[in-house]
Structures are given as C-alpha cells and as structure tokens.
Design a protein that fits this description.
CATH topology of the largest domain: pyruvate-formate lyase- activating enzyme
Strand order of the largest sheet: 2-1-3-4-5-6-7
Radius of gyration: 22 Å
Number of helices: 19
Structural class: alpha/beta
Bound molecules: iron/sulfur cluster
Shape: globular
CATH architecture of the largest domain: Alpha-Beta Horseshoe
Number of domains: 2
Helix content: 25-40%
CATH class of the largest domain: Alpha Beta
Length: about 500
C-alpha cells in the first residue's frame, strides 16, 4: 500500500521559547510559554491561501501544552511541504525559532526555511551568517514579500526581485534585497482566517486561560511614539520595516472581524492591538459606536498609549463592552516626573503621564466600575531608588483604598522589562544610563536557551546606573506580589 502524504505549499510554525518546557502542575499559569501567535501570521497565511497555495499554521507551544508527548519531528514526517515560515517576532522566541528551523531542515532538507517578524528582521545578517538551517528572512511586513518568495521558489526563479528578503544565494553569499514593501492599507487582509490553524478552538480557550486574553485583534500597523525600551515604536519600525506612518484598518472591517470570531468561537474578549492617543480618539469612538450598533456581546481590552483619556471615552467604553473581562491599561512605567521629563528630552516629547491625570483615570475607572491596570516597572532609565520608593508608596496607597473591594477595580502591576532590539535604549544605551548584556544574536539565543518558562518575565538584558539585572528581576517580583491583592479583587464581579 502506498501512503500519500498530505501536501502543503507553505506551513507556518509558531516556535516555543524552550523546546521541552517543564510545566508541572501549574501549567495553566505559565504565561511564559507564550502561546500567542503574532497577529500578522494569520493575514499572511490567508493571503497565500487566496492566491491558491495550500497553507497550515502549527502552534508548537499549544500542541505541546495539549499533548505533552507531541513531537514536531513526528508531525513533520507525516506531511509534505515546500516552504516553512517561522515567526521570530518577539525576541524570547530566539532560541526556539532556530531549533525549529533545524528540526524542519533535518526532516525535510529540500524545504525552504524562512524567518520573519521584528526580531528576525533586526538580526537578519547574523542569523543568516550563523545558522545554515535558515534559508532566508523576510524583513518587516510579510504578506506580499512571502507571496513573491513562494511564487519564485515554486517556479525556480531568481530571488533578486523579492522585496524585503535577505537570503543566501547559490554561491552561499548573503544577499539583502531592498526594503520596499510596507502595506499602504490593511483592508485587503484577513486577520481572522483562523481555520488555517491546527486546533484553533483550543488556541482561543488556552489564550484566555494562560495569557488572560482570548483574541488579539489587529487595528493597524505602526506607532507614532518612541518609548525607550520598545522595538515597535516609530523610529524602530522605520528602521526595521520601512514603515514611516501609522495605518489603521477601517472600523467596519474590525467590527466584521469581531463578529466573525465571536460567531465561530464564542470568545469572551478581544485585545485591541493598537492604543489610544489624542490623534485617534475619534477613530475609537466610531469603532465602539459600530460595535454597539451590532450589539456584539463581548469584553474589550484597551491600552492608553498617550493621555488624556477623557471621561467621555470611559462612558463610550462602558456602554460598548460587557464588564466581566474588560480592562483599560496604561503603562507610564513610573510616575516620577523627573524621569518622565528626561525621557521627553532624550527620546519622546510626548512621554507625559502626570500623576494628576493618572488620578483622574482612577476616578473614572471607579465611577464606571471598569478595570484599570497601571503598569509600572523597576529598572526604567534614569530611575533611582527614591523614584521606586515613591512609586511603591503610590501603589500601597491604591492597595489600601482599592485592594479589598471588587467594586473598586484598580490594579497596579509591576513587571520587569526587556530592552527590545531596535528600541531607542537598545540603539544608544549610554544615553539612557544603561549597559546591555547580550547584544549579539548568538548571545541572545543562548540566554533564552538557558532560561526557564516562568510566570515572571525572567530574562533581563541590561543593568542601569542604579539597578543590576538581578535586582531588577527580584524587586519587580516583590513589587508585583505586594500589590497582588488588587489584581485578585479586580473585575471578579459583574
Ligand atoms: S510601548 Fe510606546 S512606542 Fe511601543 S507601541 Fe506602545 S506606545 Fe508605541
């Protein structure tokens, strides 16, 4: 009897952080296994399928979570494929992405292995230089470049004209094609064709359970700001993706997505993959108005990227979403006006989160009984021990006022931060009083190889003038634990 393997033109694999994580009993709390697939992967997969290619998405950490004995090698041996795309968007997938590439090449040496995402884009030269299992990297935005790549591979044509591609040519030389593609509109893309994903239903259930978010919904691409540690800000994106400005999807398309996904998978909440700031408040109002009009029964997770977030916005948000899983988050990282002023001077003039306006947010959150999360950190640039003590005092005051009541939905969170490749602090650490610890891809992949999955983010890649990486990790843990009561009493009752 002859077995014919199921054939795909392209498979996408979302890599794990570590290949064989030790989950133990608390698996469902292991946020660090990070099962989220970058939002763009669905759109790229759908884009290829529409062009007639057979496509499948596999989520490695999800598969392993569902079945501890699941092996990528066995899975790959039972299918046939020509191209394998691996996302290396978030840097914590550095080790996992490379290991997956090696496994793919071992099982199917004729398949082309392509990496994509911000981190792969940033380190494209080093990855191609050191890892022979990787054939190419699509830098920046991927739908059109990957389609062109797959078409060229299928026809055995030259790769010279594939936009945004870095690759090794037939004489093993690294070639870097120009970065010419960045989407002008996103309305031709479908971000919810999740039927291409193996175990899609479980993906939503586990996302909610492990990460606290059921579905990440793309709203646009780009960001007009430059927060010091972020690799997705305006200058970073211009460097990595060639994206010069923000593009937002039409609110009608976004509502269509919510409606589709709600009907198919009965998800409880959506996280909006773009934040609010003065220049886009009108957009959000329009979007929320449409959600109300469609009577979609869902919770929403929204981020405030820049203040103000007026009372009127709270009212619209309150009227639009069911309270149960809804939240509004803001990440000033510290309330020290001295630190914020320094950031406005060196990095981003809009980085202003005055305490008076944060207190106004708290007032409105209490008024509308909507969860407000305020994200702080220890280890922000220019932050001293005194600044941290002041932030801690603020958090303790909130704990005393709001910690015991479900009706006062305020939470102060503290988390250690990673300085992402391409961010302002990564590119000029000295300006921010920072020393980076791992500044080559080899070192980065190695540190993630040695790290363990844990609830707390545990790879701190820097020391500041005032804090070592170890104290950043431990102090953030302590801060988080001391305010945990607020987290536990927030949003538990409808
Ligand atoms: S952290 Fe700052 S720079 Fe990064 S996406 Fe958010 S607002 Fe933009």
């Amino acid at each position: 009897m002859v077995f014919i393997l199921k054939h795909y033109d392209v498979i996408f694999i979302h890599p794990p952080r570590v290949l064989k994580p030790e989950y133990g009993k608390n698996a469902k709390f292991v946020r660090g296994s990070f099962i989220f697939i970058p939002m763009g992967v669905f759109a790229i997969a759908d884009f290829l399928e529409k062009e007639g290619f057979g496509v499948k998405i596999i989520n490695y950490p999800l598969e392993q979570y569902l079945n501890r004995n699941w092996e990528l090698t066995n899975f790959l041996k039972n299918i046939d494929f020509d191209v394998c795309g691996i996302d290396l968007h978030w840097i914590h997938n550095a080790h996992g992405a490379i290991e997956v590439a090696k496994i793919v090449k071992k099982v199917n040496p004729n398949a082309k292995v392509i990496l994509g995402g911000y981190s792969a884009s940033y380190y494209h030269n080093q990855i191609l230089k050191y890892y022979k299992a990787v054939d190419g990297i699509i830098r920046g935005e991927g739908e059109v470049p990957l389609l062109k790549y797959v078409q060229s591979v299928k026809k055995n044509q030259s790769l010279d004209s594939v936009p945004n591609l870095s690759y090794r040519d037939s004489s093993k030389q690294i070639k870097v094609n120009s970065l010419t593609y960045a989407a002008k509109t996103l309305d031709n893309l479908n971000f919810t064709n999740v039927s291409l994903l193996k175990n899609a239903k479980q993906y939503f259930e586990c996302s909610r359970q492990m990460m606290g978010i059921a579905f990440n919904l793309p709203i646009g691409r780009g960001c007009p700001f430059n927060c010091p540690y972020c690799g997705g800000g305006q200058r970073a994106q211009e460097y990595i993706s060639g994206r010069k400005e923000v593009v937002l999807r039409s609110p009608e398309k976004v509502v269509e997505d919510i409606s589709n996904i709600l009907n198919k998978f009965k998800i409880s909440s959506v996280f909006f993959g773009h934040g609010t700031y003065p220049a886009n408040l009108k957009y959000w109002k329009k979007l929320f108005g449409l959600i109300q009009k469609e009577k979609l029964d869902i919770s929403g997770d929204l981020e405030i990227w820049r203040l103000p977030f007026p009372k009127e916005m709270w009212k619209v948000f309150y009227k639009t979403f069911s309270r149960r899983y809804s939240s509004i988050s803001i990440s000033p990282r510290t309330l020290s006006s001295r630190v914020q002023q320094k950031i406005t001077k060196f990095c981003d003039p809009t980085f202003k989160f005055p305490k008076s306006q944060v207190l106004e947010l708290i007032k409105n959150a209490n008024l509308f009984r909507m969860t407000l999360r305020i994200w702080l950190t220890i280890g922000f640039p220019f932050q001293t021990r005194f600044d941290v003590l002041k932030d801690f005092e603020f958090a303790m005051n909130c704990l005393l006022k709001y910690g015991k009541s479900n009706l006062k939905p305020i939470t102060i969170m503290s988390e250690p931060y990673h300085i992402f490749p391409g961010s302002p602090a990564y590119k000029s650490p000295k300006t921010f009083g920072i020393k980076l610890k791992y500044n080559s891809f080899l070192k980065v992949a190695d540190i993630f190889k040695r790290s363990k999955n844990s609830f707390f983010y545990n790879v701190i890649n820097y020391n500041t003038d005032h804090f070592s990486s170890t104290s950043i990790l431990n102090a953030n843990k302590l801060f988080f634990l001391s305010t945990a009561l607020m987290h536990l009493t927030t949003g538990r009752k409808t």
